[in-house]
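By way of example, we now present a protein record of this kind:
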Amino acid sequence: MSYVIVTDSACNLPRRLVEQYAIRVIPLTLNVDNCELTVKSYRMDELDQLKQLYTKMRRGVRFNTHPLNKERCETVFREVLAHGDDLLYIGFSSTLSDTFATAKFVLHALAAAYPERTIRMVDSLAASLGEGLLVYHAGILQEQGEDLETVYRWLLANRSLVRQWFTVGNLQFLQKSGRDNGRLFWAKLLGQKPILRINERGALVPAKRVRSRKRALDVLVREMGNSIVEPDRQTVFIAHGDCIEDAQYLSRRIRERVHPDECLIHFIDPVVGAHCGPDTIGVFFLGKDIHLGKDIHR
């Protein structure tokens, strides 16, 4: 039975990967200076819209994010199921957002309307290209002929082993979103740069503090070097909030240190970016103890 992979726009995958693996993406929404914007970041690659949105953030334009729209969510899911396909949904970490809970509620209702269809849901325990990394590997496995249940089991077995490290340019965005804590307060007070990660439960936690931006980037490289598994078989992801020069520096250092098969660089979408701010940069990769299975890295 054929199946379709569905995710949300917080996965931050670039357009070429979304199209290559025929992934359905549910757009999230936010208000920018009291105007609603539907985020289809995977379609903004050539339009320079993401850069323009980050320019507005730097100017202090107000950004407010919204929960996943149930009607839009149901429309995408129903189209897949009505077409006769089974469905695999991979969503934004439930610890950081209500997106997964909303999608789960909608899919439970649709399961009764389409009892002949198989529906599987995976909380990615991830954000941005951490979520995107799982979607990407699901797409690779599907392309290689793996069935829905095999891909579903792989995701559940390996989602907690996705490593997600990042640093931010300005702590005020985390403070406004309610994701600050005492350790970040002291980093701001002392003029330090925080190193953060998303842990195995999908929660944002502070890890370290360093004295400079360059040092923060180098720590991201070091953390990757300490825990990445079989880098020559991996595509590692770098997500950035309109700081391409830093992303390119990070890519060079990663290639020198761990020699991955490929480094992919892409923007952080504005829904995630509204919480972490411009100049956020993160690295995402598969860590030690992960079960790679057959040749899924190319």
Notes: Confidence is low (pLDDT under 50) at residues 290-298. The first helix runs from residue 15 to 20. The first strand starts at residue 3 and ends at 8. The chain has two domains: 3-32+67-160, 161-286.
